[in-house]
Description:
The protein has helices at residues 61-73, 95-110, 117-132, 138-145, 181-186, 194-213, 216-222, 229-232, 239-248, 270-284, and strands spanning 3-13, 22-38, 42-49, 78-84, 148-154, 157-162, 168-175, 253-256, 263-268, 291-297, 304-305. By secondary structure, the protein is of the alpha+beta class. The longest helix is centred in the middle third of the chain and has 20 residues, at 194-213.
Amino acid sequence: MDYLKIFAPATVANVSCGFDSLGFAVDAVGDEMTFTKTTEKGVKITKITGAELTYDVDENAASAVVKKILNDANADFGVALTIHKGFSPGSGLGSSAASAAGAAFGTNQLLDARYSKLELTKFAMFGEKVACGTEIADNVAAAIYGGFILVRSYEPLEIIKLPVPSELRVVAIHPQIQVKTKEAREVLPTLIPLKDAVTQWSNLGGLVSGLYTDNYILISNSLVDIVAEPARKCLIPYFDAVKNSALQSGALGAGISGSGPTIFALCKGDEVATAVHDSIEEVYKNTGINFEVFISKVNQEGIKIIK
């Protein structure tokens, strides 16, 4: 293979109770990237659309990952890369993760798929470090594996793919403001009371159990974050109004996607998802803040080749 074009999905991380350990991929939003083999070794970015990103190959999350993989594989070719961002950096939907994971996947295809999904996740985590200073795995693993994933361990890295109930839908609203991951991490508490930690662990266990058993009531009861959300919601205008509106319209639960400002709601079935979509759109339409709202299934496939 000398050329391919891929779709790298947006992702929702944390999923309320699963801070830095839980994530899932969406169908509706993502990036498109192309990879072309070149006789000249190394990587170069030939085109970026959809967002203003650096062309510096060591500072761009995608090209940094491509370079790292080519060096690791001792490849005898280079890669020319194009990136079309389908959603904004700083959205809370894993923008840097889509770039990093997509870069790992695409380069691996040019190398005849020599690396496993777990190894690709490790490479993509390097891209996250380039982008935001931290080698987090939840977004990149969700993009690479598809569906829901649990980061069971970081040392050693262990990713578990979780089942997805067939009627599960996600509604997300992206206010057109930027919340930088680094800044959102700085507002988090450094110490957590034992009682709160036990509650958070219990909710995570309940959510995982609900996914395995198609128990929507258990999923709903478990979508509670008492650690990150209380500290971060002040960064997102009208967060409480959106969350309350979603819950009143039948959502199983709602919370901050990644570090925000996107707010997600999980729903059972298309009818409820449509009602939730309309209700949160109503909350935001007179705020004076531009926004986008979408409904999506959970993307079970993850990154895919489209050409």
